[in-house]
Structure formats: structure tokens, C-alpha cells
């Protein structure tokens, strides 16, 4: 099953507008730095994520400006544990790896990615920690 998530845009738009305002106020060599920051904020607004839960692996991809900048395939033997947090209406899943940084998975649509990850973990005998009301 394939799931998608997008970066929330409100904060990035606010920072973009504030930086744009200050860019017009600057009349020095630092003006170019403001344009670089504007580009970084724009790139952050276009960030989206893709998660595929397959039979034998998890595929996680980060895309900025429609270009894949990071692709990661995680096999079950690389996963130490899965921590599921149900504090609000949307679950957060932390996939702790034996080597490397953990994966923080949240805001994915359609609903149910957390239950599919739990099934994946049960199938491969991976420890599952649950926090919250579910």
C-alpha cells in the first residue's frame, strides 16, 4: 500500500512573506542571502513524502520540487522497534532502526498507515510500543 504526506504550508508561507518583506528593505550585500533563504522556504513548501509498505520492506521517499532527494528501503531485520503514538486524531509512528536515524511517520493519507505498519511489524516479529488512547 502507498501513502503520501505533505509538509504543512502555513508556517512556510508566513516565513516566506516575512523574508520577502525584509528582502525589499535590505540595500546591502546581504540581499542575496535573503533570496537564498526565500528559495529554501519555497522548497520547504513543496516537500512531500511517500511511504510504501511492501511484503518484505518499507520504502520511504522525500521529494522536494518534484525531485526525489532521499530514497530509503528498510528491511525488517534493520528495524529495532516500532513506537506508535496516538495522542490526537492523527497517529505518529516512530520506526527505530538498528543503524541510522529513526523514521518519524505522520500526516500520511489515506488513513490506516499505522495499522498496516502494525501488521507489517507483527508479521516480521518486530517489537511494537504503543502510547496513547488507541
Automatic annotation (TrEMBL):
The lineage of its organism: Bacteria, Bacillati, Bacillota, Bacilli, Bacillales. It comes from Halalkalibacter nanhaiisediminis. This is PH (Pleckstrin Homology) domain-containing protein. It comes from the Bacteria.
Amino acid at each position: 500500500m502507498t501513502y503520501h504526506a505533505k509538509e504543512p504550508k502555513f508556517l512556510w508561507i508566513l516565513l516566506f512573506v516575512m523574508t520577502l518583506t525584509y528582502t525589499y528593505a535590505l540595500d546591502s550585500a546581504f540581499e542575496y542571502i535573503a533570496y537564498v533563504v526565500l528559495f529554501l522556504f519555497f522548497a520547504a513548501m513543496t516537500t512531500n513524502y511517500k511511504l510504501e509498505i511492501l511484503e518484505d520492506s518499507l520504502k520511504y521517499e522525500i521529494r522536494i520540487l518534484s525531485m526525489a532527494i532521499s530514497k530509503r528501503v528498510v528491511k525488517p531485520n534493520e528495524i529495532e522497534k516500532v513506537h506508535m503514538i496516538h495522542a490526537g486524531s492523527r497517529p505518529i509512528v516512530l520506526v527505530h532502526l538498528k543503524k541510522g536515524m529513526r523514521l518519524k511517520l505522520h500526516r500520511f493519507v489515506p488513513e490506516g498507515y499505522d495499522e498496516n505498519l502494525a501488521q507489517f511489524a507483527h508479521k516480521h516479529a518486530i517489537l511494537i510500543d504503543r502510547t496513547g488512547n488507541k
